[in-house]
Amino acid sequence: MKLDSVVEAAIERLDATNGAREAALATSRVLIRQCANAIRAIHRQEWPTAQELLTAAQQTADELRARLADHPAILHAGYTQDAFKEYAEARLTYALVHGDELPSAEALGVEPAAYLNGLAEAASELRRYILDGLRHGALATGERLLEAMDDVYSLLVTVDYPDAVTGGLRRTTDALRAVLERTRGDLTTALRQERLMAAIAQLEGRLSAPEPEP
Question: Alpha carbon of 62 to those of 87, 101, 110, 117, 207: distances in Å?
């Protein structure tokens, strides 16, 4: 082949790769925005809105994977995997809050590292949901979600691979541990206050009860 033909063929491939990269960046931004809005709707308990946004996010994630089927390097690039991590986080947050069975990495169509990091961040998101619930006296829900946080941390702390393999999961898990301990302290304080108020109310009831006639 002539030199100009060889160079032209290489340039065409680079053009295709660059086009795929630009499209992936744009689609990744859309996916991250959809997932952030879905998590916000979950915290506000706007369930129809959350489900609608998660459905849209699933379609965007599927579109992103399809576009990058012929560009594995871009599919596994950091910004693309970050978007898939956010998608996993949104879907897992919804499942954890509702007590549903967690979808697997295969079901979500994400890589294991993105899935596990998304799981850790989903567990951390439960802190906000728990604290919002405490303001309305939802102690039982708080206890259930704290147990879920603890279960996630207990499993993730056993994953021992280099950061290059896990996408920095160790740091994400360490951050989850700090969130877990703060949440445990807040919930414990709320439970103690609830018990104290119940004891005071019971005592007041006894003191205000009429004495039996002789």
Answer: 11, 21, 10, 19, 65
Q: Which amino acid is at 197?
A: M
pLDDT, one tens digit for every residue, the chain (214 residues): 688 788 888 888 888 888 889 999 999 999 999 999 999 999 999 999 999 999 999 999 999 999 898 899 999 999 999 999 999 999 999 999 999 999 999 999 999 999 999 999 999 999 999 999 988 888 899 999 999 999 999 999 999 999 999 999 999 999 999 999 999 999 888 877 767 666 676 655 666 666 656 5
Cα 88 to chain centroid distance, Å, stands at 6
| HSE of 33, CA atoms in CB hemisphere, 13 A | 7
| Domains with residue ranges and CATH for the chain | 1-103 (1.20.58.2140), 111-206 (1.20.58.2140)
Burial of 137 (0-12, 13-18, 19+ CB in 10 A): exposed
